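writing this on my phone so excuse typos. first protein, seq and then structure
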Amino acid sequence: MAARANILGTEMPLEKELETYRKKLPELKAQEGKFVLIHGEEIVDFFSTYEDAIKSGYQKYQLAPFLVKQIHATEPVFFISRNIVPTTTAL
């Protein structure tokens, strides 16, 4: 999947890093459960905690874009619903 462009024709933030994650996922599965630090097309390192990964990212790249993502063989799906109670009030 090629990187998508926004309305202005430029790459979306972290699009390159997300594409790198998707392309490298077969290799990354060996580290499933860990957090990966990705900068551009580079897999920088693996970490046991999100905090360690994000700290390393800011130390190395400061305000430049980087991605920290937990490695999952299949992405978890989260369902969020609202607790709506139907009303019986007549209009």
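second protein below, same order as before
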Amino acid sequence: MVLIFLVGIIVLFDWFIPTPVGSSAAKVLRDWNVIIVALAIGLGAFTMYRTHYRHLVRRTPGQWPYSAATLVVCTMYILVGLGLGVSAPTYQWMYSNVILPLGGAVFASVAFYLASASYRVMRVRSIEAALLLVSGLIMLLATAPIGSVIWSGFLTTGNWLMDTVVTGVYRAFTIGIALGFILTGVRTLLGLETAWLGRRE
């Protein structure tokens, strides 16, 4: 906890009150941060390989075919990326013809779940639900091509909702998130936040 406090204080002071000594110490800490993040990514990759390899060896029902596909694809991408580079035509072809279509397919399937969830959420049971339903329909018709055919005011109303209502709510959420980050950071520096260490409050 003392180490976390010292690191946080040094980086904060370099951000708000930069000095030659503080900037040098903060640069060393940032360099170490890059090294630790790289090691964490390597550890995560090792854990992923070990987990899927165990599923593959044990023939876990309903899991091992996906684990085999994951290991083959990840190994192929690593070998091609390290051997030819990420800017190589082969790597770009693999990205454009494998990753992008799979991502599009996943997002397309998620759209059905979103539609089902929206139907359940937007059932009018209160005034707030009615406002959410009406604003959602207006935004849907404002962005859809058929909306301007039905009524030209959908686009104007949708833009007003985005520029006025949504922007205000987004700023409120952003301020709340920032305050939460600050509070969590202060609690961590003071040793009051120990959940990340696996300890219970």
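The chain is about 85% helix and 0% strand. thats all i got for now
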